[in-house]
Amino acid sequence: MAGGREIKTKIKSVQNTRKVTRALEMVSASKIRKAQDLMKASRPYARLMRQAIGHIARANSEYKHPFMVERSEIKRVGYVIVSTDRGLCGGLNTNLFRNLLGQIRAWQDKGVEVDMVCIGQKASAYFRRLKVNMVGSVTHLGERPQIDQLIGVIKVMLDAYTDGRIDRLSLVYNDFVNTMTQKATVDQLLPLPPSDELTSSHSWDYLYEPDPASVLDHVLKRYVESLVYQATLENLASEHAARMVAMKSASDNATKAIGTLTLIYNKARQAAITQEISEIVGGAAAV
Amino acid sequence: MSTIRCDIVSAEKEIFHGNVSMVIATGEMGELGIAPRHAPLITRLKPGQVRLKLENGEEQFFYVSGGILEVQPQVVTVLADTAERAADLDEAAARKAKDEAERAIANRVDAMEIAEAQAQLAQALAQLQALEQLRRSLKH
User: Fold this and answer.
1) To 10 degrees, what angle do helices B87-105 and A147-162 make?
2) 20 to 30 Å CA-CA from A267: which of A17, A62, A81, B100?
3) Does residue A265 register a pLDDT over 70?
4) DSSP letter string over B42-107?
5) What residue in B sits closest to A42 (Cα-Cα)?
6) Is B96 on the interface with A (CB under 8 A)?
7) In this structure, what is the dihedral angle of CA atoms A35, A45, A176, A70, given to the nearest 10 degrees?
8) A138/B100 touch (CB, cutoff 8 Å), yes or no
């Protein structure tokens, strides 16, 4: 019986693969809920922070913080890239990187250099091979990212901006729309994009304690941190959603493949039996 | 008695929201008591207690390890830090991030095993896809 054993082995191997993809699918399905809860829990802070920043932007302060002033010439730009630590989540990271590569190329064509910091192993593994300047990296954030894990990479970029080494800073991540859709997103962090809200009619300003420069510096740094943190949580939820979908389709494919292989196996076995019988019959006729 | 809305949040969760008659916190320049109709104010907070006097006269305490206090005509917002923060700690974190990047560029070895296992699984998935195509071509 030709190839029967080989087909059987293949069926076994596909079955084993299906076990793995099923398990991954179920793990992601349970983790996605936790990731979504984290995302929701961190929203009030992000909202109130945005509100405070909106107020600050509208206050008639004499002092203008460098983070709020657009620079006339751009010589070097910075990116904070949020990616996953693990693979097998469909095209999630690839789409994000492809999106970003287009932008990087556009900057490089204009003679602008690119610095980046990577959050997550996939980004640092990918951009290591490219001709970009990786200045910071953090990996293995786990299932509950904490803001203090991110402080380092953010500080690297904020310092670069303050020192004038970069003139613009953007944040790249996958925005979690719903389980089926994750949107690769690039947001400008610095300088703060001007808010489209109307400026208030009467002029007022805060009492700053101790002084506008140090307070605004503190607030704006916290603001950037909260945006990056929020992006990390969005990306985490996106990762689990994408993995769940990818693994589900892989399991489905495995099931179909097993069906096909079983069919082929049965045909081969039937053919072998038929052949054997016809050989016996032929043999008997010859005698 | 007049009251003012108060929101206390940290990056990881919402801690308090509701109407209060007074907010007492430790600002960088000293203890602050914010009553309704306080002038707009923004300041950094020192690690310490935030005390709220609620409408019914009760008091509530929260510990914050630093953060920002913003006073607006209708609302007092406390944006609390989740972690203990200090300039030198931040500096150390930044240095660690840079080291990590250098190590990533120098290609680490310990990630190899995982990458290998992943490559195998990816290969298996590719085989599945090929089989799927084979199945389709058999049908037609």
Assistant:
1) 90
2) A17
3) yes
4) EEEEEEEEEEEEETTS-EEEEEESSEEEEE-SSEEEEEE-SS---HHHHHHHHHHHHHHHHHHHT-
5) B12
6) yes
7) -140
8) yes
List the 51-110 stretch of A: residues with Cβ below 8 A of B: 51-52, 55-56, 59, 86-88
The amino acid present at A13, given as its one-letter code, is S
Q: Which of A172-186, A214-228, B82-96 has the lowest mean pLDDT?
A: B82-96
Residues of chain B with pLDDT under 70: 1, 83-86, 107-117, 140
A222 interfacial to chain B (CB closer than 8 Å): yes
Pairwise CA distance, residues A217 & A219, whole Å = 6
Chain A residue numbers with beta carbons less than 8 Å from the beta carbon of B132 are 253, 256-257
| Average pLDDT score over chain A | 89
The continuous run of DSSP H or E covering B33 comes out as strand B30-34
Beta strands in chain A (DSSP E): 76-82, 113-119, 133-138, 168-176, 182-190, 207-209
Contact A254 B128 (CB under 8 A): yes
Say if residue A201's pLDDT is above 60.
no
On whether the CB atoms of residues B18 and B60 are closer than 8 A, the answer is no
Residue A200 confidence (pLDDT) above 60: no
Contact A112, A76 (CB under 8 A): yes
Contact at 8 Å (CB) between A210 and B36?
Answer: no
Q: What is the pLDDT of residue A199?
A: 55
Q: Record the tokens describing residue A249, joined without a space.
A: 């389709």
Query: Could you tell me the two tokens for A181?
Result: 């859709």
Chain B stretch 22-81, residues whose beta carbon is closer than 8 A to a beta carbon of chain A: 27-29, 39-44, 67-68, 70, 72, 77, 79, 81
A131-140, A167-176, A206-215, B11-20: range with highest mean pLDDT: A167-176
pLDDT in tens, B17-42: 899 999 999 988 889 999 998 999 99
Q: Identify the burial level of A180 via C-beta atoms within 10 angstroms of its C-beta, where 0-12 means exposed, 13-18 middle and 19 or more buried.
A: exposed
**Cβ atoms of residues A33 and A241 within 8 Å:** no
Phi/psi region, residue B57 (left: phi>0; alpha: psi -120 to 50; beta: rest), is left
